[in-house]
Amino acid sequence: MDPITHAASGAVAMFAMPNRPASRLAVPLAALAALSPDVDVVFAQTPLLFLLLHRGITHSLAAAPLLGLVFALAGYALWRPSTARHWSFAGAWLFMTAMILLHIWLDCITTYGTMILLPFSDLRVRLNGVFIIDLLLTLPLLWAIWRWRARRGLMLLAATWIFIYPAISIGLNAWHTAQTRERLTAQGRAPQNLVVLPDAFSPFFWRALYTEPASGGLMVHTQGMNVLGTPFGPETATPSLPDSLARDLALQSTAAKAFLQFTLLPVVAPLPASMLPADISQATQPADAPSPSFILVHDQRFGTNIALVRSIMDMRPSADIPFKYMAELAPAPAPAEQETPSAESAPESGKSAAPAISATQAFSQRLLRERLRFSDSRRDSLWQAPRPPTQPSLLQWLTGLR
Fold it and tell me: 100, 155, 163, 219: which one has the fewest Cβ atoms less than 10 Å from its Cβ?
């Protein structure tokens, strides 16, 4: 969810309290606490760190009391004995923890995915209820803040809107999912992995994503729908990333593993020539020599099926697929080249060796180089060798850097 909505939700929550402390810092502290979990972007300087940290440990249920404690201590004015209608320290801690949980709730109702179970699980929770920016959710909160001197009942109504509106949208999502499945089945089709996402101007517009088998493998289909579930615009189909290739990439690369865990119904396409490594166009090799292949992996979660919105998005300075993973794959080896390495090929004593690959990890696609590029945040790893996943340390496990 956008920062304005997060901050506004905290301010509304404080205004709605029956006996809030008589301190000018009360509302700003509540707004800042409701915004604070997004401090993770300060530490997410690289694309990989962005995948691992954003909506990560600072958005987890386990960390909420700790962040709440930080703001309770910083908000001494709320429980200072000299403050009129002051709270107890425990009351301030409870309120600030509730602000952290409010932030987590508003992030979970979007399509991005929030790792609320860290450090125990990196599962991303996405309820697909509202678009990343939803004026029907935000404007009532801002209006209530503008009318803050009005009756407290207005603030209570605005506070409940934070939960009622997303709940209605999540219910509409479930209805659209059932309707879409029924419509496609009636057409004699067999959709798999069906998921309905809010489009811009939801709940009036939605998008359906699903896979269907085709002669060349699974295809990811995308179709726009209006509030009544009626399809509009052309239905698109893009090749799905094969499960075998996804498995190979995740086993060979920490970045690929994190990216694929982040994506929803990932698709694959040949990498455009403009994004190839610079050394490829300069390399000289025999014409009959096998050459590596380059692929682009992304998902269609952050697109739109509304033509007007799409044209506006294309006007952005950084208009591009928001999250991209690019890979250079080695040419497929001949059968004779797939033998197990002999002892003679083992590294000499004292020299570092690449991580051993067991017989069960015989990759059909060997990863040579990779690149993560997130256009909206202007984060780019550039082309580099993959780093294989390793067993995380205790600190890495606790912070989600695995």
Answer: 163
